[in-house]
Structures are given as C-alpha cells and as structure tokens.
Design brief:
Blueprint (H helix, E strand, L loop, with lengths): L1 H16 L1 H21 L1 H6 L5 H20 L2 H9 L1 H6 L5 H30 L8 H23 L7 H15 L12 H9 L1 H13 L7 H24 L4
C-alpha cells in the first residue's frame, strides 16, 4: 500500500506544480462547449431535441477526462528516458502496485479536471440532476481509470516521446467523435452504429448523460456494466504490458 500511495502522490504533486498544464487542459473543453454548445443550439432546438447545452455538457466532461487521462501515460516514457523508471522497477515492490499507483494518480487528476469542467458547464447553463449526481461521479471515475490505464498500456510499449502524442491523437479523436458526445445515437447509419457500440467511451458518455441529464439511450445499467468491465480488462492489459518492461 505504501508503494501505491507514493506513486499516486508523485503523480498528484507533478500535476499540481504544473499550473500551465492545469490551465491548458481546460482550453479545449471550453472551446467545444462555447463553439458547439451555443453555435448549434438553435439548430438542435429547431430539430425538436431541446437544449443542446444540456445534451452536450456530459460529452464535454467526458472529453476532458479522456484527454487528461490518456496523456498521463507520457510520464512513463519521461521516467524511462531520465532513469527514474529503472530505479522504480528495481525496488522491492510488485509491478502491479506501481501500475496501480500510477493509474490511481492519473485517475485522480483526470477526475479533478472533469469536476472543474462540470462547474464550467454550470456557468454555461447546464443543469444536472442532483439526485443522480453520485452515480454520475462514479461514471467519471471509471472513465478516468479506464483511459489512464489505456494510456499506461500504450506508453509501456513505447520509448519515443515524440511518437506518444501522435499515437494518442490518432486514438483519442476517433474515440471521442464516435462516442455520441456531440450528436445523438438515434438514427445513425448501420456502420456508424456498429462503431459507436464497440467504442467504450460511448457507454461512458451515455452513462453521464443518463445520470446528469436524464437522457440515456442505451440504459444506465448497461452503461455501468460495460464501462466497469472494460475498465478491468484494460487495467489487466496495462499491468501485463508494464510487467514486460525490461530493467
């Protein structure tokens, strides 16, 4: 437990000391919220779908968590480059503990970022359900843990720091845009429907939308089962990939 705590605390301290990183991570969610939320609001209302801010806000929250969580994996490559990772791996602790500590640290950071974006959406006019807010927070934690673990799994296989952001963008953009964060899942072409169904973020966004805005398409129960199950699988893969790193 001490090893897990130390790795978690190190992640938190590094994030807290990087004020530019904290502020910069808010730029994209705010841009999407303002540009899309107010830009398409009239069109969305004319289509009989209600408030687009109410629809978009859970997707923007999920986007903030997704980006923050995935990019925490670059710290593994950074630690490998400067020798800290080697010192960590030779310590008398299990690699599973190291991975869990790092993943919990990244999860905490991504979740905190999601909370900040949630507060910003309130200013923009989003009105979440207070009754189901605790379940919504659980979805945020699961999304953060799942994609932090995915970023860790990918970073464990890479040594080139320049390649990591490129691969992350290659994965993040399709995951986000094909999750239903920006558009309803009803009435999509068959091929697009299949893609959205195999995208784990789809269930995270739908779970957030169901708990915070009361507009779930797939069912909150199914969303929770899928997100929790995929989170466990990805964390197991991340642990396996990290265990293969040579000292």
């Amino acid at each position: 437990m001490s090893a897990i705590y130390v790795m978690w605390l190190r992640q938190i301290k590094r994030y807290w000391r990087s004020k530019a990183r904290m502020i910069g991570a808010l730029g994209q969610p705010i841009l999407f919220l303002l540009a899309f939320g107010f830009g398409f609001s009239t069109i969305f209302q004319k289509a009989g779908q209600g408030s687009y801010i109410q629809f978009l806000a859970p997707g923007v929250i999920a986007m903030s968590i997704l980006f923050t969580a995935m990019f925490t994996g670059i710290e593994i490559i950074w630690d490998r480059k400067f020798g800290f990772l080697k010192e960590t791996l030779v310590a008398p602790v299990s690699r599973a503990s190291i991975v869990l500590g790092k993943t919990l640290g990244g999860t905490t950071i991504a979740f905190a970022q999601g909370i900040v974006v949630l507060l910003i959406t309130l200013i923009a006019g989003f009105r979440p359900s207070i009754v189901h807010l605790p379940l919504g927070l659980l979805f945020m934690i699961l999304i953060a843990f799942m994609f932090t673990a995915l970023g860790t799994a990918i970073a464990s296989r890479l040594e080139d720091m320049q390649a990591f952001p490129l691969i992350m963008n290659f994965l993040i953009m399709p995951i986000f845009f094909l999750s239903g964060a920006l558009f309803p899942l009803e009435g999509l072409p068959r091929a697009l429907t299949v893609i959205t169904r195999v995208n784990p973020l789809t269930y995270g966004v739908d779970g957030l939308r169901g708990t915070l805005a009361g507009a779930s398409h797939l069912g909150t129960g199914l969303d929770l089962i899928v997100v929790a199950g995929v989170t466990i699988i990805i964390f197991a893969i991340a642990t396996w990939q990290f265990s293969k790193i040579e000292v």
